[in-house]
Write a structure and sequence with these properties.
It is built from 14 helices and 15 strands. With about 425 residues, it is an alpha/beta fold. It folds into two domains: about 5-35 and about 295-420, Aspartate Aminotransferase, domain 1; about 40-275, 3-Layer(aba) Sandwich (Aspartate Aminotransferase, domain 2), CATH 3.40.640.10. Strand 5 (about 115-120), helix 5 and strand 6 form a beta-alpha-beta unit. Helix 3 (about 60-80) packs across helix 10 and helix 12 packs across helix 14. It is globular. Bound molecules: pyridoxal-5'-phosphate.
């Protein structure tokens, strides 16, 4: 396998060379959103300048705009391993799409039906279902995560399933702990009980190849702005499931797939950017090996990307582990690096996360504090929700030098805050 072309990759992202008051930016806020390659911004701009029309007409630009929309669905089908572009539903973001799909699915649920939610999920995959349960009188069963493995466990899921379970909503990777769930085996167990499985892959999508046909789930959702694309969400739904659904929609709008689920005028220019984001991965894969389909190139891109990201994550974990009183809230065992994405969250005894983050932000190291909508996780761990954690999230354009600078800053800032307290 060829190495990861970090300099060439960084050269594609104009934002990485921006400076503020002479200080370069270190972007470690990636779980909240990544920067975009020039090609993505160019595609959005080109579409607005040359292909700006609504859909369904007979003139040049409306026909071209339809092609942009079709291309984006095909690109995402390739990215996710979907059988056809008709299974790809594109919308504003993960949360909006999930609220919409939950209401659509709710049309088939009745009082007393059960749904299973996890204590590991982002609110985007919790609140829509909780409120649906309130509206319809559904019973909510909670699946905790294991505080040793940092994953949800098959046996615990099996205990919660019954012949009344209609849906299991779970995440692929956590936006706080970074741990990756065994989605395929969890799905198999839920499917045996006849439940639908809705997977939040927002945090996994930037870090690994998704194969919806292999996972066996019914729905899988992600957000393009987490994998170098524009601000939008993408929901894959298994054809035999979505074909049978009646979404809330205008009476006169198309009943086709996926149009039935895509309300109003689509974000056509962002769809152009979405295709460019998938093509960015394909280009990376093309540089890493000979030929193949777009999907095969995307797969190769993830192989080189993972091989580059994982040592960075380990470097970060090792450096943080040296700090006394600091607790990493997630997998730290180097042997289990494959069970996590490179998002590392921590708390420090006696120190409010926001104070660390504000100081590091002032040094132009971009990262987040708080619960980051992993509301259930902070509650299960007994972390005060108003404080949360410090979260450092690596993307494949980060470098070992940036990690080292960040570690120096964490050390310095914590020492300074401790000194102020004493
Ligand atoms: C795991 C996870 N799920 C869902 C969301 C919500 O995504 P969106 O902003 O596209 O609604 C996020 C956003 O950070 C996330 O990290």
């Amino acid at each position: 396998m060829v190495g990861f072309p970090i300099e060439a990759v960084r050269g594609k992202f104009p934002a990485l060379s921006l400076t503020d008051k002479g200080r370069r930016r270190i972007y470690l806020d990636n779980p909240a959103g990544t920067q975009v390659p020039q090609a993505v911004a160019d595609a959005v701009s080109r579409c607005l300048l040359t292909t700006n029309a609504n859909l369904g007409g007979y003139f040049e630009t409306t026909i071209a705009a339809q092609a942009v929309v079709d291309d984006a669905h095909q690109a995402m089908a390739d990215f996710l391993g979907a059988a056809s572009p008709g299974e790809i539903i594109i919308g504003a973001n993960m949360t909006t799409l999930t609220y919409h799909m939950s209401r659509t699915l709710g049309r088939g649920f009745k009082p007393g039906d059960e749904i299973i939610l996890t204590r590991m999920d982002h609110e985007g995959n919790v609140s829509p279902w909780l409120q649906l349960a309130e509206d319809l009188g559904l019973v909510v069963r909670w699946l905790p995560f294991d505080e040793k493995s940092w994953q949800v466990e098959e046996a615990k899921l099996a205990d919660l399933l019954s012949d009344k379970t209609r849906l299991v909503a779970l995440n692929y990777a956590s936006n706080l702990t970074g741990s990756i769930n065994r989605v395929k085996s969890l799905t198999a167990i839920a499917k045996q009980a006849g439940a639908l499985v809705y997977v939040d892959a927002v945090q996994f999508a930037p870090h690994g190849l998704i194969d919806v046909s292999d996972l066996g789930c019914d729905f899988l959702i992600c957000s393009a702005y987490k994998f170098f694309g524009p601000h939008m969400g993408i929901l894959w739904g298994r054809r035999d499931v979505v074909e049978g659904l009646k979404p809330y929609k205008c009476r006169c709008s198309s009943n086709g797939l996926p149009e039935r689920f895509e309300l109003g005028t689509p974000q056509i220019e962002l769809m152009a950017g979405l295709t460019a984001a998938v093509d960015y991965f394909a280009e990376l894969g093309a540089a890493a090996g000979e030929g193949g389909s777009r999907r095969q190139k995307v797969a190769r891109a993830f192989e080189v990307s993972i091989a580059f990201e994982n040592p960075l994550a380990q470097r970060l974990i090792d450096g943080l582990s040296d700090i006394s009183g600091l607790t990493i809230r997630g997998i730290t065992d180097p042997k289990r690096l494959g069970d996590r994405v490179p998002t590392v969250s921590f708390t420090v005894e006696g120190i409010v996360p926001e104070t660390v983050v504000r100081q590091m932000n002032a040094e132009n190291i971009f990262l987040w504090s708080g619960h980051n909508y992993a509301w259930e996780i902070v509650h299960q761990l007994g972390i005060p929700a108003e404080q949360g954690v410090v979260r450092i999230g690596i993307a494949h354009y980060n470098t070992a030098g940036e990690i080292d600078e960040t570690l120096e800053s964490v050390h310095r800032v914590i020492a300074m805050l401790r000194q102020q307290r004493s």
